[in-house]
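Now produce a polypeptide, keeping tokens residue-aligned:
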Amino acid sequence: MTIDATNVNPAVAPTVPGNSDASRDVASYLHPYTNHATHEQTGPHIITGGDGIYVTDDAGHKLIEGMAGLWCTSLGFSEKRLVDAATKQLNILPYYHTFASKSTNPAIDLAEKLLEIAPVPMSKVFFANSGSEATDSAVKMVWYYHNAIGQPEKKKIISRKKGYHGVTVAAASMTGLPGNHKLFDLPIDRILHTETPHYWRDALPGEEEEDFATRLAEQLEDLIQAEGPETVGAFIAEPIMGAGGVIVPPRTYFEKIQEVLKRYDILFIADEVICGFGRTGRMFASETFRLKPDMITVAKQLSSAYLPISALFINEAIYQAVKKGSDEVGTFGHGFTYSGHPVAAAVALETLKIYEDDGIIEHVRSVMSPFQKRLKDLNKFDHVGETRGHGLIGAFELVSDKCAKTPFDPYGAAGKAVAAKCLEHGVILRALGDTVAFCPPLIITEDQIHTMFDAVEAALTEWHSSL
């Protein structure tokens, strides 16, 4: 089926009169992840306030933020304890760096707490400001580690097609999405991509889920052997793939992948930037899927996105290599002006306390079943090919022909149209091509889940009737 993309309204957006906030935005701001030719015509959708799971736009619409912003605002948009934590720290020490052995109490406390709750034993925590910086730091750590231990050829890093690991040069190279590579001269060398673990879309006819996982593990091993195991340093994966379409790993996938990595002495980096801190009903998705990574990256829900902060966990073997290398060189030449920023660290620490004090993980476990049931119910729509998810993350994929799994033409127009319809019904979701994703704040109640899905079903009904 063909969709007329020219009639797709990407959002409920104002017209762009001469001196409005919208026109000033179009005139001055280069937006990330935006079609700027379209943006000049539609203008921005301006958000002016937030309360709980809701945000308000400049037209006065109260909207359920079904994506928690960008997979991140876990405690909603009005958590006073986080505002107070930031204010208190601003009054004590608004900034200091952590270069050259300098430190601050919030950075120390947060690093200690993160090591305490880590899903596997870790040695040290390195702080940055975004998920992209954390995964970029992991790349540099892989290269540094293998140089320090006398394996300078073992530098290639394998990611996955449709994986998402950020937008800095190395992180965007690991990201397996064409839009992050085209016109940017990416990926850089030493970054490779193996297949996407999407059983519904990519399994062979009659292939069982476990057999599909076996085939993908064999493909990974074939790639390692083709490149030369002595040249492959690390493998990076999200436990659940986020921006690539909320792809949940097939049964036995990670067990088989980790066996391959262990066989060839390849480091495993778990990208928990989206899944970390309760999204799957455990503190880390590495626990949910029994991962044993050597490094872990986190961000987003670390501070409920109230302030920018991310972290990279490293194990003892990697730390010993860092110690050795920094002694030989005279310094560990990596870090950011805002690494371990005391205000961001104080807010992150308070976020972790709220998770414990308010039983957020237990709450997620209590509402994830109704969330997943309502998500699965969307399969009743003729053009919903698959629903998928785990915990409080999920998605539905739109297809022209359900039996043949045929995409719409042009690809992506249906997803934009449905997301726009959902917005008209008061719910913000995100179109990832023709997959529409959910990732609500972790504080969402069961009643709010039903309100959200009632609106999405109404939107899908209207969209289907318009085809």
